[in-house]
Design a protein that fits this description.
mainly alpha
């Protein structure tokens, strides 16, 4: 495990140039959002329901879509590569086990939290008078969407069909950002006295994680 982590850290350094370019581009996007006049009480990565019939939902949620797409792009698949790399430093190849998969889940969860937190702090510094509870909820929802998107893309990676994985992610994100009806339902308070997006996000993440675990175990057998 130690040599694998060292290899993972080395791969991070090798791709720092491309990652820095993505970060610079996304920093410009964040700056444009901060001066755009959009509701600063909602986190940049949170989908919003458009009240105007003349504004398409996808165009209205372009910042939220870009947040998710750049969030997936910045790691450059290195979490997936770390999960899939074989245990080749032993004479008899052994299974990587559930511990490795749990470590992967922890890494991408921490990444999603840090990626979201940095932007949330910047937005709060710029607009400190907005409702902190509602803002925090929108940031958590955006982080959950990003985590589910990364798990979906990783499922394609583990299954040997990366293009299909990313295609599914883009289609699902596009549908979420485009239609006001599911957005309004997700934002509404349900029978559990919490926004519907909370149980929906938990269920989606659990399903995606379970599917990833199945693909991970199957990859070990093959």
């Amino acid at each position: 495990m130690k040599w694998q982590m060292a290899r993972f850290l080395q791969s991070l350094h090798r791709r720092n140039g491309l990652r820095a370019m993505l970060l610079v581009i996304y920093a410009v996007v964040v700056y444009r959002f901060l001066i755009s006049g959009m509701d600063p009480g909602v986190f940049i990565g949170m989908f919003r329901s458009s009240d105007s019939p003349f504004t398409p939902g996808l165009a209205y949620n372009m910042y939220a879509l870009v947040y998710a797409l750049f969030g997936m792009a910045i790691p450059l698949e290195q979490f997936s590569e770390w999960l899939a790399v074989p245990e080749c430093m032993v004479y008899v190849r052994r299974g990587r086990g559930p511990g490795r998969f749990l470590a992967y889940l922890l890494m991408i969860t921490v990444y999603c939290v840090v990626y979201t937190l940095i932007q949330a702090v910047a937005q709060r510094i710029m607009f400190p008078d907005e409702d902190p509870v509602a803002f925090a909820g929108s940031a958590v929802c955006a982080a959950c969407v990003l985590l589910a998107a990364m798990l979906t893309a990783n499922l394609g990676y583990l299954s040997g069909s990366r293009i299909a994985g990313y295609f599914v992610v883009v289609v699902l994100l596009g549908l979420l950002m485009s239609f006001s009806e599911p957005q309004q339902w997700l934002l509404a308070v349900g029978p559990l006295h919490v926004p519907n997006w909370m149980p929906a996000a938990i269920l989606t993440i659990l399903i995606c994680a379970a599917a990833n675990l199945i693909a991970f175990n199957r990859m070990q057998i093959l």
